[in-house]
Amino acid sequence: MDIxxxxxxxxxxxxxxxxxxxxxxxxxxxxxxxxxxxNFIQGTMLYNHQISSVVVGKVQIIAGILAVLKVLLFDDKSxxxxxxxxxxxxxxxxxxxxxxxxxxxYYFLLLIAAKNVNFKYIAASFFxxxxxxxxxxxxxxxxxxxxxxxFTKANGTFALGMNYxxxxxARFFYLLAAYALFKNFALSLPEKISFxxxxxxxxxxxxxxxxxxxxALLLLAIIxxxxxxxxxxxxxxxxxxxxxxxxxxxxxxxSYLYRDHSTLFTLANKIFSxxxxxxxxxxxxxxVTLLGQPIPQQGFGGSSTxxxxxxxxxxxxxxxxxMMFGAVTFLIFIGLLVxxxxxxxxxxxxxxxxxxxxxxxxxxxxxxxxxxxxxxxxLAALANLDYAKDSHYY
Length: 394
Known about the structure:
Elements: E1 7-8, H1 11-19, H2 23-42, H3 53-74, E2 77-78, H4 79-99, H5 103-113, H6 119-142, E3 150-151, E4 157-158, H7 165-182, H8 189-206, H9 209-223, H10 225-257, H11 263-271, H12 275-285, H13 317-346, H14 350-362
Antiparallel strand pairs: 1-2, 3-4
Helix pairs in contact: 2-3, 2-5, 2-6, 3-5, 4-5, 4-13, 6-7, 7-8, 7-9, 7-14, 8-9, 9-14, 10-12, 10-13, 10-14, 13-14
């Protein structure tokens, strides 16, 4: 047998699991909850008002150590698997250090620590934690303990303790997606009505069109699951990969080639809420590096309800990864998305594939792809998905 493909697990960890079979999952979930909560806090008006960045940073370090401990003690890997994990981890650490942002690195630690953990429990934990955290922040904003920023777009939009209304809308989209995955899209009529109520309420408060679209598509996919699954089978994994890859390529290419004197580019830029012109500015002022760079940005979120004299923020997840974390990290992420799509389609996990497609579409506009307090679908790369394989639809 090839020694590089032999699997190994620390004997000490095996002995611990023999006595405490629940311990590996427990360590993962403590790490998971800590990182979700600290990332969540950074997207609210609690951050730097009541809770300092120093505290958040130290908690995340503890969570990261726990994730690594779970992997080292309880997970078996081949030598080639360990080498690949270490190599990618070092690359992402260097990229995060250069970009001065560690969300991607901590997501990676959780991703490898999620090996063999039941994704159903991950989704349930995420849903419960995020729901409680949202209710707490809403209450704090309601009673004036933290600011409840309001913005003047349309008839007025509210952040309800978040940094910006679009962040609030994205929270609800990812919350609904997590619940849908927990139920493997097998929702009752009252649950579907509740989804519709959340969608209407979210748009009423935030006026966010992108999240209205993806939430509406999610609900439609749940209602017409058999038909959507049939279409996915006909399109095939290769077709889905090509279509989504084309969307990402068009976004990146249009941002790079954007010219404000072009009628076509101007129209597209308006449709994408000025994201093409902002992406073009990023290319002109910073360009793409191999492993990342710091890019100072200032958006509306968390600081002002008035227009800024020099607004500059890269919203698209793909452009943020490419410009801030470098070409290598960008390719790693694209490879991960392609791998997940292939895995879901091969195993007929169509609920997961639908959510992945919606997340990929949403990430063209928003920056939450690599924030685990929003998006948990990437954890499905190594997590146990057995609960969803025996679908009641087939």
